[in-house]
Amino acid sequence: SAGREGYIKQTKTVCTYCGVGCSFEVWTKDRHILKIEPTHGPANGVSTCVKGKFGWDYVNSGKRLTSPLIREGNTYREASWDEALSLIARKMTEIKARDGADALAFIASSKTSNEECFLMQKLARAVVGTNNVDNCSRYCQSPATVGLFRTVGYGGDTGSIRDLELAGLVIGIGTNTAESHPVLATRVKRAHKLNGQRLIVADLREHEMASRADLFIRPKPGTDFVWLNAVAKYILDNGLESRDFLARWVNGLDEFRETLAPYNLDYAEQVSGISQEQLKQIAHEIVQADGTCIMWAMGVTQQCGGSETSTAISNLLLVTGNYMRPGAGSYPLRGHSNVQGASDMGAVPTFVAGYQNVQDEDVQRRHLNEWGTPLPRNKGLDNHEMVDAIHEGTLKFMYLMGEEMAIVDSNANYVEEAFNKLEFFVVQDVLFTHTAGFADVVLPASPSLEKDGTFTNTERRIQRLYQALEPLDGSKPDWQIIQEIANRLGAGWNYAHPSEVMDEVARLTPLFAGVSYERLEGFRSLQWPVHADGTDTPLLFLDGFPFPDGKARLYPAQWIAPLESATEEFDLHLNNGRMLEHFHEGIMTFESPGIKSKVPNGFIEVSPELAEERGIKTGSTVRLVSRHGAVKMPVLVTARVQGRQLYMPMNVPNAVDAVNRLTGSHTDQTTHTPAYKDVAVRMEVLSLD
Ligand code: SF4
């Protein structure tokens, strides 16, 4: 409705925080945000969590960037848009002319819209001529996407969030769902409490979902692959598999069966610590359930073998016939509001939008027709490789949009050193982040409430966000900034509105062929694939899998053991994760005093048995030392963790960078997702009180 001065305006938007994708109306009067009113969001109904309801103070924070900044020595001076953009274009042109297009790199953001992510990869490919483009799904869910591509052909949740309520059994592996995906968790909690749904949780730490579970198992760190394969082997050895489904819809059973040979119950018990009785129980629960959904998140993916374990999850679902029907399938839970969309839109080195391979001749031809320029064919760098390439001196320029990379990438000291080595570094964000402090130019962007666009949530649902507020004076929507940079490089883009970008996505991308803003009007939404006639796909795989013969593939994955096992010197395992109250490295939620006061400081969770052994208690201060760095932290003694395992929340005030001062640079081998959850430390007691 209209936003005349002094009048209350209601605008439909999508939450800027997690991948559940709650949508609601935001009530504003001038620049005041009066309230958030969830009415009938397709993902959330009438629910939100504390962040969606109260986490909006950052939009009017006095810390908002309101002018481009140009570095002068160790400080910054305000500059006009014209001066800042001209400087960026001049540097890009110089570096490309001297060192080639692959000396430049671009990072899109899962906090920005689909259209903005699409334009960022178009800038990289069509204007500059490099595939060096990535986004922060590299830090979280890329391994899940690989596991699903290998086995079922699409890297997205099998069904809708609502379908989770239909499952007879939900298994959560390495997901602290109640805190990281709160509104989605309420659906599982409700079905578990009211509908007799069974719940199994596998995790290191006894969080809320673990406490509610019918069975809670605590595998040793990094061993999920082993117990999952043992369950699959037990099912096959005992003839409990879904034979008709396998015969009709799945390839590769014989080879898969062979790769399972080592994973007998005895071996799995030794490696994972899960008893043989529990492994059998899990197998029987799955085969007896009327539909099993497996949800997983970063406890699985942020490991050296994250892609392999994600593959093992999908293999187990195939063996038991848990695809192609409601209330069954894979649910990798996407972290940020548009982490699904950032990859969908091609902000990754190997694919353009819709996961089309840049090397494919048809894809090349279609883009040449649309853009008038061929797609680059050189192998692009992902985020992790970009940092190495800066250290090696081959990557000179980076344009980073909406990403606190100096804090969220692993081995923060190494990343900061890289940023200091860049010849030219552009950071675009809403607030002056820690990463911005390394930039040569900082560009002030507008947050989601100040622009039109779309986000895609964890269930592949594309939803509209409408502009509720004018961009704060001095800032601009990311899509406009990217367009202005492209045009200073001679691109001649002329997008008047993000809807025109989405029209282009639809023309180039079979997965989004039928997407248009008309079809996304208001609270309407579409779940991809969206066909040319506009029909969408709430449930993937209703009539087969997107492989040439329509059959899924059991993929023979390999176990990759954790690299940082405890040693005499580093004798403790450090785990980390989110808290309900905070998000996005805290950049946004710390600006809400009410939320900040709920969790004002960082801490390290220590088990009662370890606390007793070391003579420490809640409030003691310790120094954690890893092979890569050290941090000081107050102790919270809690039975949520056990034995020699520690847990540290990663996005709380005064400790946002603590986790990645300790993590190393080792990664999932397929995707280069950092193995954040594979850290060995020692603990030195600094004070007992
Ligand atoms: Fe919904 Fe996630 Fe936003 Fe909470 S943070 S309101 S669960 S989208």
Description:
One of its GO terms (biological process) is respiratory electron transport chain. It comes from Deinococcus koreensis. Keywords: 2Fe-2S, 4Fe-4S, Iron, Iron-sulfur, Metal-binding, Molybdenum, Oxidoreductase, Repeat. This is Formate dehydrogenase subunit alpha. This protein is α/β, with parallel strands linked by helices. It has four domains: 8-60, N-terminal domain of TfIIb; 69-139 and 337-527, Rossmann fold (3-Layer(aba) Sandwich); 142-333, Dimethylsulfoxide Reductase, domain 2 (3-Layer(aba) Sandwich), CATH 3.40.228.10; 572-687, Barwin-like endoglucanases, CATH 2.40.40.20. It contains 24 helices and 28 strands. A hairpin with a 3-residue loop joins strand 25 and strand 26 (630-637). Helix 2 (81-99) crosses helix 20 (478-488) and helix 17 (383-392) packs across helix 19 (412-421). The longest helix has 19 residues, at 81-99. It starts with 7 loop residues before the first strand and ends with a strand. The model has no long low-confidence stretch (mean pLDDT 94).
The number of helical segments is 24
Strand order of the largest sheet: 5-4-18-17-16-6-7
* CATH T-level topology of the largest domain: Rossmann fold
Strand content: 15-25%
Which radius of gyration do the C-alpha atoms yield?
24 Å
Q: How many domains make up the coordinates?
A: 4
Question: What's the overall average pLDDT, rounded?
Answer: 94
What small molecules are bound in this structure? iron/sulfur cluster
